[in-house]
Design a protein that fits this description.
Elements: H1 2-10, E1 16-18, E2 26-31, E3 37-41, H2 51-66, E4 72-76, H3 88-91, H4 96-114, E5 120-124, E6 128-129, H5 131-138, E7 141-144, E8 149-151, H6 163-173, H7 175-184, E9 188-189, H8 190-196, E10 201-202, H9 206-221, H10 225-244, H11 247-258, H12 261-276
Parallel strand pairs: 3-4, 4-5, 5-7, 6-8, 7-10
Antiparallel strand pairs: 1-2, 2-3, 8-9
Helix pairs in contact: 2-4, 4-11, 5-6, 6-7
Bound molecules: ligand LGGBLMCM.
Ligand LGGBLMCM binds next to α3, α11 and α12.
GO cellular component, one term: mitochondrial matrix
InterPro entries: ClpP/crotonase-like_dom_sf, Enoyl-CoA_hydra/iso
Pfam families: ECH_1
């Protein structure tokens, strides 16, 4: 543990391999002593998930899988935001081809993240609405800094959280809480999210956040990895298979939904509102 902390705080070059050169959108740091990967989303200002960021994430997850990563921390380089969710500009007046390509990459990335055999922890160092919340919920453990917001707020935007977003939430906070949260499109403060189990721990600041994330991975990496991963994937397989076996239907649902005039109107108003802030 001491070695790991020293590497992180001092940035000891011999112990950390940094792959940020391969893609600027995701900074990947791997500790050579422990193998632990830190995947830092780096699309300023708010890590909105456009095709390019999703593709960079997917590529990074494939790399980690090939290298038999023992554990991964997902976090963000933004000071305010973990991820602002799906990039609204990808959904506002797209061509059919662009929308289809975007949604398919979102599916690819989520399937990879949700099915990782190794332990994953979301170090949520900022706001985490909608697709940002999905990323956090796809990790095994969630630790969040205080005074930020997290949740699936789609309803409030006049759009519908896809079934697999909803399933992820239901799997974590249970049927009743998820139904209430999803119908209202409710955003929770960090403290409220802890109370309902949407996040597992709160941290005092970024340093504490990363320390707690490493502590979680240390504990998980002490377990027999094969048994651990079989149980994890077993718990997730129904949610995964639903999407994997229904990818085309899910794309069709997205396309039908996103091209509705009412949805386009809601997106336009929301984008304008964000720009005027
Ligand atoms: C039809 C099927 C739908 C499928 C399901 C959809 C899922 C989704 O994920 S939809 C996206 C939902 N996301 C949100 O509701 C978040 C919107 N953003 C915010 O609430 C805030 O930006 C914030 C709390 C995340 C961060 O606040 P702050 O630090 O104050 O930053 P600003 O609001 O000033 O934003 C900076 C900059 O970024 C633009 N922006 C914010 N979010 C998005 C986004 N999701 N997509 C694209 N662009 C976004 C914002 O417009 C600002 O732009 P500029 O004015 O040009 O700087």
């Amino acid at each position: 543990m001491f070695v790991l902390r020293q590497c992180l705080t001092l940035g000891t070059k011999s112990s950390i391999r940094n792959f940020s050169a391969t893609t600027n959108l995701v900074n990947l740091t791997i500790n050579e002593d422990t193998g632990v990967a830190i995947m830092e989303l780096n699309k300023p200002p708010v890590n909105s998930l456009n095709y390019e960021l999703l593709e960079a994430m997917h590529r990074t997850l494939v790399k980690l899988e090939n290298e038999k990563c023992p554990g991964m921390i997902l976090t963000s380089s933004s000071r305010s935001t973990f991820s602002a969710g799906l990039d609204l500009l990808e959904m506002y007046k797209p061509t059919v081809d662009k929308a289809r390509r975007f949604w398919s990459m979102l599916q690819n990335t989520w399937i990879k993240l949700y099915s990782t055999p190794y332990p994953t922890v979301a170090a949520i160092n900022g706001h985490s609405p909608a697709g940002g919340c999905l990323l956090a919920m796809s990790c095994e453990h969630r630790i969040m800094v205080p005074d930020k917001m997290i949740g699936l707020n789609e309803t409030q935007l006049g759009i519908v959280a896809p079934q697999w977003f909803q399933d992820c939430m239901r799997n974590i906070i249970g049927e009743r809480q998820a139904e209430k949260a999803l119908i209202a499109g409710r955003m929770f403060t960090s403290e409220e999210a802890l109370k309902i189990g949407l996040v597992d721990e709160l941290a005092t600041d970024k340093e504490d956040l990363m320390q707690k994330a490493h502590d979680f991975l240390d504990e998980q990496m002490g377990l027999p990895p094969l048994a651990r991963s079989v149980v994890k994937v077993g718990f997730r397989k129904d949610t995964l298979s639903k999407l994997i076996n229904g990818r085309e239907a899910d794309i069709k649902m997205f396309l039908d939904n996103v091209f509705q005039p009412k949805v386009q109107e809601s997106l336009e108003n929301y984008i304008q509102m964000l720009k005027k802030k």
